[in-house]
């Protein structure tokens, strides 16, 4: 499907009431239905998450084993979860949630407590890794936290994939 980027941007940032109004105009000049646009935004958001996860995997698989690399893995792993979670929330509510705290609440409501807690915990760890020279990772070293982040993020994206597939989204 080839939907104009401006149409995708407009729909991604649309409020619930704006979405309702747009629903009355089932087809835009692109010929895509509203549901096709929603699905495309969902897929693109999920793909951003996959891209973040791929970068984290590449960094961790490299020969470089510095704390800065481990920090990058933690950050990219969290953002993989964040972007995939945004895709899930957008597909359910037809509205993008950019705020990390609000997204966490929505993910918890949609995917359950385990997913919500994972997203929250790794946001905290990402903040520590990004902003503190002495990150408090609850006893984990940066090395161990990076490896854990990749495992948790992979599981989280798998959960999002299964959820979206169950809603008919072809990833």
Description:
This protein is mostly helical and 171 residues long. The chain has one domain (5-166): Up-down Bundle (Four Helix Bundle (Hemerythrin (Met), subunit A)). Helix content is 74%, strand content 0%. It has helices spanning 5-12, 16-23, 34-61, 67-93, 100-111, 113-131, 142-166. α3 runs antiparallel to α4 and α4 packs parallel to α7 (142-166). The protein is elongated, with a radius of gyration of 17 Å.
- Any idea what the CATH architecture is? Up-down Bundle
Helix content: over 70%
Largest sheet: none
Radius of gyration: 17 Å
Query: How do the helices and strands follow one another from N- to C-terminus?
Result: HHHHHHH
Keywords for this entry:
elongated; mainly alpha; 171 residues; 7 helices; Four Helix Bundle (Hemerythrin (Met), subunit A)
Could you write a compact summary of the structure shown?
The protein is an all-alpha fold. It is built from seven helices and no strands.
